Amino acid sequence: MKTIYNKLLLLVLLFPLSILAQSTLTGTVLDKASNLPIPGVNVVVEGTQNGTSTDFDGNFNLTVKKGDKIVFSYIGFKNYTLVYDAQKTISVVLIEDSSLLDEVIVVGYGSVKKKDNTGAVSKVSAENLNQGTLTDPIQGLQGKAAGVTITKQGGDPNAGFNVRIRGAAGFAAGGGPLYVVDGVRGVDITAIAPEDIVSYDILKDAASTAIYGADGANGVIFITTKKGKNGKTTIEYNTYVAIDDVANKLDLLSATQYRNAIADKGIAFTDNGGNTDWQNQIYRTGVTTNHQFAISGGNETSNYRASIAHTDFEGVITGSDKTRTIGRLNLTQKSFNDKLVIDMGLSGTIEANKYVNYGGNGQNDVLFQSFQRVPTDPIYNPDGSLFETNSVFNYYNPIASLQQIENNRDAKRYTGNLSLDYEIIKGLNAKVALTYLRNDDESTYFEPTYSTIYSGQTLSTELRRGYGKRAYNNWEQSMLEATLTYKKTFAEMHNLTLLAGYSYRGTNWDGFSAQGRNPISNQLGADDMQNFEDIQLGDIDSNRGERKDIGFFGRAMYDYDSKYYLTGMVRRDGSSVFGKNNQWGYFPSVQAAWNIANENFIANNLSSLNLLKFRATWGISGNSNIPSGVQDFRVGYVGTGIDTETGNPIVNLGYYNNPNPDLKWDENKEINLGLDFGLFNNRVSGSVEYYKKTLDQLLIANNNIPIETNFSNTTYINGGKIENKGLEATLNIKVIEGKDFSWNTTLIYSTNKQEVLALGNGTYDYDFIDVDYISGPGLVGVSTQRMQVGYELGTFFGFEYAGVSNGKWLINGNDGEIHYLDDVSQSDDHKKVIGNALPDFEAGWSNYFTYKNFDMSMSFRAVVGHEIYNATNMVFGNPDYLGSRNVNSEAVTLNGTVGGAYQTMDYYLEDGSFIRLDNVNLGYSFINPSFAKGISKLRLYASVNNIFTLTNYGGIDPEINFSGGNGSNEIYFGTDKYNIYPKTRTFTFGLNIAF
């Protein structure tokens, strides 16, 4: 009894001390990726029942004593343990545990867990995209996904990016991928603010894209935008300011160098006394500002997110600008005990573009005129008017084009979508989706009467007359898609998903334009077309068209115990753009996979192996993006003439092409073999793909049709065939995962070879097709590449340089002899394959670092093993220009005269390989900043785009549009032309804040 008494007495005496030793700890738990609070986190003193959970704002209170181990745990995040050391307030950051998360990827009309995917699909989340100033949201994906090539020549804010998935896509049909935004097909992705994007999912193989039938041949890119979440209302504001400068300028002679070269060579020359750097006169520092505001929230049955973004882009060529405002609203509502889910999206974009002329070599093309302008010419006359001289043909002051020409466009794009998804019985869902898209644009172009600008200089009559044009275009699309989906698990091991669907799409467009010459007043411009005295036949134009597309599709997906997978699908598409004999087509596919890592003999012996999945797919998809009406007779304006009876002018109509009732879609048949792997709790993961795809029945505009038995010499036929083969690899490594420091890295690698297998249909065939024609002074009918059966796309075809003799160029002939170029320049007899524009491989390396509150990312990109035809050097390296036009330094040292060398020669081919540090971003996040109560996120960042490029290429930029060089065509690339907007280097400073 005494012992018990003593213990009770001791307890009574120590109890106040224990009370004094305990403290109340308060704190907040945040998500490291988003910096936002996490509600519902378990906060427990290890080994006890003493615990709590975070509230709606991520806050908690817990009674603890010194030395307690406090464990923070939440599903999908790594546990974090803290030893209490008498702190009063703490902030804890939890890191996502990807080994616990089943990442979901989007596929056609549904989604699957990444571990269950059987096709060739790449996923890139927002946090892994390129940061900083993005003129186009697709820019963020550059260098991030194997097999996806995204290029843009120059830094024009009004120009888009070329996107190519696994090589060339077609001849005359459109070559870009299909974009699907939140389930809506055909959305213009420039109408999406980069800040609104959650992720990209890229379907690359035909088996995956076959669910979209005649639209899937060029790959499918899904874009998922942000939605509201269950919780308190969140307000976000993102802003940045960016500075753009020309990264590299063309190496042209200065005034001093020009005068010295003229004197050394004894060339007769009129020195006009100027000292002008014409590139400096047209270039400027561009400033871009961006503001984006978003509000989101929701509860258990509904959520919302609304955002508006406004960006002002200033291009580095004076006068090239873009202003863009984007608004987006996403709503989700659940009803009838969550059986009915209603999703609604609205978006609108207003864009204003100011263009400058630079894509050619005419009188108003700013780049060409500034490059060729002699640096000894002044800009202005003493009276302030623009200096001009008619020393040579097509030689004009580029400042006139910048100051006087109006070239504007206003565009509006709208998207509305509504879907209703109802669970009929458990596992069986019916969904109906309605979408409306509309794009409108209006453009104004005006060239004034130049005689008032040049202070009486003698100019051509055509130049003095002036010119104006007004045009508008409307495009709208309505879609209805209905699906029925059934999901069932049998015996806990057999998983089955069935999908059946119907799709209808109607597209309409119309446009109108009017033009005239000789304005009465330069002040009125093209605002009033009555201002023009000269309106000719053919100056009024209009168009109208429509197409209808219908599809029926089905898919069955089965897996057994997450080990064996089998997917089959088929789509039947009909379209009004095809010939009447081929308006319907079938697009089947099959996919199979085996996850060997889930087999007992692997799982029980190799615990470090988390995933090892073999995949094999085969499928057919199509390309229906063909020119409108080419399956029928097309009659239209072909010029004017004179009525022989009255002498009055008349309009001549003619046939554009003959009808072809057998015309059908381009067809992509593809085999894909893949391997996915994950090691060490997925700290090392990745995939390897091998594919072989045959693009068959490619649309060709055959111009060799006998006119004697046809209405036109052109008939569109299905006759081309290209084979693409390649290898793709992706490797993700979580190099370091520490409490304060982490480093994740991703490497991608891809190869692609493209061989021409056919250029005709057996009735009308081409032996070859010369492509990629270049123009300029003295350049008439000069092509750099030849498409020919048995050769790769991008094959440069021309003469082989053999030196100079007697001041004239020599070439190595196919007869083993050396010839003067002037003697053989009009013949193909001695031309040969001299190089290729296809790279051996492309690669990307992205790194993501965190250190306490700092985050940093950097992205490298490489394109290796190809050649570039330097047409810029071909034009401005010509010593014959000295005395009349400006030249580069090579023209001064070149031995001999170019003369007939205005033919394609390997002299102008250069190694185009490069490694570029595309993007570096450094940010600092304030965690629960004490100076700003109520702020849940505050991040400051700085980024630089296009930091440096390692290359042996002698031009200003080795990045050529590998996606294709002829608008919609994807068949030739690799020529560096002098009229390309300059590449820029961009410095961005920004702020992200959330309340």
SSE map:
Elements: H1 2-21, E1 22-31, E2 42-45, E3 51-53, E4 59-65, E5 69-73, E6 80-83, E7 89-94, E8 104-107, E9 110-113, E10 121-125, E11 148-151, E12 162-165, E13 178-181, E14 184-185, E15 197-203, H2 206-209, E16 220-225, E17 231-246, H3 255-265, H4 278-282, E18 286-298, E19 302-314, E20 321-335, E21 340-354, H5 366-372, H6 398-404, E22 406-425, E23 428-447, H7 461-465, E24 467-490, E25 494-519, E26 532-534, E27 540-560, E28 564-575, E29 584-595, H8 600-603, E30 609-623, E31 634-642, E32 649-657, E33 666-679, E34 684-702, E35 715-737, E36 741-750, E37 753-759, E38 768-776, E39 779-788, E40 795-798, E41 801-805, E42 808-812, E43 818-820, H9 821-824, E44 832-836, E45 841-851, E46 854-864, E47 867-870, H10 871-876, H11 889-893, E48 909-911, E49 914-926, E50 937-951, E51 975-976, E52 984-994
Parallel strand pairs: 1-7, 13-16, 47-51
Antiparallel strand pairs: 1-4, 2-3, 2-5, 5-6, 8-9, 10-15, 11-12, 13-14, 15-16, 17-18, 17-52, 18-19, 19-20, 20-21, 21-22, 22-23, 23-24, 24-25, 25-26, 25-27, 27-28, 28-29, 29-30, 30-33, 31-32, 33-34, 34-35, 35-36, 35-37, 36-45, 38-39, 40-44, 41-42, 42-43, 45-46, 46-49, 47-48, 49-50, 50-52
Helix pairs in contact: 5-6
Low-confidence stretches: 7-20, 452-463, 963-969
Strand content: over 45%
Mean of all residue-level pLDDT scores: 86
Principal-axes shape call:
globular
Oligomer: single chain
Portion in helices: under 10%
Question: Kindly, what is the distance between the CA atoms of the first and last residues, rounded to a whole number of angstroms?
Answer: 63 Å
Give the structural class.
Answer: mainly beta
Radius of gyration: 33 Å
Q: Can you count the beta strands?
A: 52
